[in-house]
């Protein structure tokens, strides 16, 4: 995509309203600008509270919502949008991609789930993809080491960052887990 494409007005009856929710201000600003250039009427929010208020006051046709926000979970925003507008096309963005949250997001009405960093072309494609159209496989899929690391991180977060409990659930020695957690994420 070249960034000059515009929204297909037939997708949601001509409504091109888009709510972008992210607590990363520079990313939010860049994505909002890029989506405006593609024909969307963009509204932004930096918190769950602000996004839910905007969604209830003026439910958008499209939404891009970060999973983890400073004051809560982006899935609450997805639910609030769905409550007011069942035909809204919502996608979840997250730096903590895992299957459980992807399934929950889809059950709440999200049409796609993208891992950060996602560029404007990926977001645009996810928002405008027709329901029967499949997403293209990723050019750079996660390595097996990265998938393992993501799983360990997810369990660690579920255990409220308790190393001993995480090690027990993963059937792993506590010191081995501590070494893994101390390292940077593999590519």
UniProtKB/TrEMBL annotation:
Domain Response regulatory, chain residue ranges per copy: 17-131
Source species, domain of life: Bacteria
InterPro entries: ActR_PrrA_rreg (IPR047772), Bact_response_regulator (IPR050595), CheY-like_superfamily (IPR011006), Sig_transdc_resp-reg_receiver (IPR001789)
Residues the record lists as 4-aspartylphosphate modifications: 66
Any GO BP: phosphorelay signal transduction system
GO molecular function terms listed in the Swiss-Prot or TrEMBL record: DNA binding
Phosphoprotein in keyword set: yes
UniProt keyword list: DNA-binding, Phosphoprotein, Transcription, Transcription regulation, Two-component regulatory system
Pfam families from the UniProt entry: Response_reg (PF00072)
Family annotation (NCBIfam families): ActR_PrrA_rreg
Role played: Member of the two-component regulatory system ActS/ActR acting in acid tolerance. These data implicate that a two-component sensor may be involved in pH sensing and/or response.
Protein name (record): Acid tolerance regulatory protein ActR
Taxonomic source organism: Pseudaminobacter soli (ex Li et al. 2025)
Lineage, broadest ranks: Bacteria, Pseudomonadati, Pseudomonadota, Alphaproteobacteria, Hyphomicrobiales
């Amino acid at each position: 995509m070249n960034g000059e494409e515009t929204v297909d007005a037939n997708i949601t009856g001509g409504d091109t309203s888009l709510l972008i929710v992210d607590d990363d201000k520079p990313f939010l600003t860049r994505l909002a600008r890029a989506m405006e250039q593609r024909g969307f009427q963009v509204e932004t929010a930096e918190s769950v509270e602000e996004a839910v208020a905007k969604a209830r006051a003026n439910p958008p046709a499209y939404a891009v919502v970060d999973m983890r926000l400073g004051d809560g979970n982006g899935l609450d925003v997805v639910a609030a949008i769905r409550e007011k507008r069942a035909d809204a096309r919502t996608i979840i963005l997250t730096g903590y991609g895992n299957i459980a949250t992807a399934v929950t997001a889809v059950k709440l009405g999200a049409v796609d789930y993208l891992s950060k960093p996602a560029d404007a072309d990926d977001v645009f494609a996810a928002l405008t993809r027709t329901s029967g159209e499949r997403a293209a496989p990723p050019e750079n899929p996660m390595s097996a080491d990265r998938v393992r690391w993501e799983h360990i991180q997810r369990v660690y977060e579920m255990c409220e960052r308790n190393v001993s409990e995480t090690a027990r659930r993963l059937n792993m020695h506590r010191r081995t887990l501590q070494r893994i957690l101390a390292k940077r994420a593999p590519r």
